[in-house]
Amino acid sequence: MRYNEISHNSHPHHKLKFGYTQVPFKCDGCKEVGIGSNYKCTTCDYDLHTHCALPSPTLSHSFYTKCSFQFLPRPPGTVAHYCNACEKAVTGFVYHCNACGFDLHPCCAKLPMVLDDVSKSPTGEVKLYLYQKVSAPCLRCGRKGRSWSYRSTCKKYNLHVACVKEMLVENWHELYSNSGRSGGGGGDSSTTRRLGTKVPSLKGTLETHHHQKSSKGKVKKGCEMAGLAVQFVISAVLGDPTTLIAGVVGTLMSK
Q: What UniProt keywords apply to this chain's record, in alphabetical order (predicted)?
């Protein structure tokens, strides 16, 4: 359920209003980057992913059938915690299982098991399914296994969630290091404009991949489909796996 305005215990002084931004922001809850729908205090430039603003107190996941995850404002204890989905450090809001010690970023915990909006593309039908591990090489790193992955039904396109996170950190270092703030209402607008034109792209990697495996006539279409798959995975990792946000990501990737 979505609310137009909420009170949140992480920001008790002001209410947070539901909004939408086409420019990346850093979530003040989980400390990860987001885009699209969010809850924001424009007075304080405070942002939360929708998943962080309206979390489930407890959560179960089909990958970990014996686990019961509890939503916490920060990881317990003093040792470093890492997300089991993307391998990235957990420094803020988290779903934590006391029994096994597993951790999931809120947006990782809510990653869709199927990204089927990709099938609406004019270039053809591709559905992406989330797997805990796959034996096929990743489009970006070429490695197998590693983290959770999205894989197409045709088995041609596979992308690690960890690789997507690495791409975001590399391209949006200013947001992750706190020198850039938000995509709306506050912060340095010149910084957010620069970030908006630096959405990760796998163009060179995709072209090499398809040149190696396809005839020349199929390279262009293969790159288009793989590029579209990348757009949807990036938008899902950013917390808003919609056709609209995938289109925004695609536009920014092409700049």
A: Metal-binding, Repeat, Zinc, Zinc-finger
